[in-house]
Automatic annotation (TrEMBL):
Region spans: Disordered: 209-235
Pfam family, one: Aldo_ket_red
Domain NADP-dependent oxidoreductase: 4-311
Source organism (scientific name): Streptomyces bungoensis
Annotated protein name in UniProt: Aldo/keto reductase
Amino acid sequence: MSALGFGCWAIGGEHRAADGQPLGWGRVDDEESVRAVHRALDLGVTFFDTADCYGTGHGERILGRALGTRRDDVVVATKWGNVFDPDTRTLTGTDDTPEYARRALTASLRRLGTDHVDLYQFHLSDADPVRAAELRDVCEEFVREGLVRAYGWSTDDPARAAVFAAGPHATAVQHRLNVLQDAPELVELCERLELASVNRSPLAMGLLTGTRRGPLEPGDIRSRPPAWLPGFEDDGSGADPRWLERVEALREILTSDGRTPAQGALAWLWARSPRTVPIPGFRTVAQAEQNAGAIAKGPLTAAQSAEIDRLLGR
Ligand SMILES: NC(=O)c1ccc[n+]([C@@H]2O[C@H](COP(=O)([O-])OP(=O)(O)OC[C@H]3O[C@@H](n4cnc5c(N)ncnc54)[C@H](OP(=O)(O)O)[C@@H]3O)[C@@H](O)[C@H]2O)c1
């Protein structure tokens, strides 16, 4: 598996919560998404992260279509736990029952056009840990049946991550990690238990790319950020200037050795721990090329990481 995965949330396209809250990244061009996945494959990216609810199923379909005959060359990760209505592109609730896990997996396999998922992730980050232990055992059944190779929990809570990690085929925790939002306990847990630390929002949802300004289109989750999404203004005008100031303070280090800011943000993650696997989102071939290009430039140095901690007052 490549040291870098590609996050397929944005390419799922628009979808929303029952109250109208946008949950996608606005409009996307499916043909460009497919071209971007192809370019990533050509550049050596072998890990793709999606979820059944991204675009209420559309994201998995697009990824399956883009991978085509190259499916077996890559690690495909998806997630379950949210319930959705594809006709209205709306998330309608959640379901943490074992019966639903099996139904969701069957549907994901069909949309992805594959007979197995390489990494199956529980998407409900704050779910009941007792319930989750049952689901972990269900994942073991999926492994025995050959439907799933490995599994993990997408959660920012180390205690919950540890519940899933107790399973023999648990290999990863997906959690938020980027240069502005460190997660020391989760990184420590992944190092101790020898799990992959799969890093969502590695570019702080675009804040770290040096290009994200505003205003944002109404279908973009960042135009009406939920409580768990800091760094963007509530009125759709774009990035919070205080966050951009912090990004600006890091620019010189992140752009060292000819890196773009996005490449620098990924380089910080690789320096953070040998277990990290960032999964930056993308919508275009140009973003795919730039993000895949980070691999060759490698991690920041320990001195650069220390300087970043100093600049951010950590
Ligand atoms: N488990 C979960 O609950 C969960 C939650 C969040 C994310 N994730 C996963 O993590 C992945 C990545 O996280 P994320 O989507 O939150 O955000 P991210 O990777 O931090 O930021 C992605 C965004 O940054 C911009 N971008 C990417 N590459 C760029 C480049 N080279 N130059 C300029 N801009 C660039 C694009 O936004 P523009 O639209 O501005 O072009 C892109 O959509 C997701 O796709 C998903 O697979 C999982």
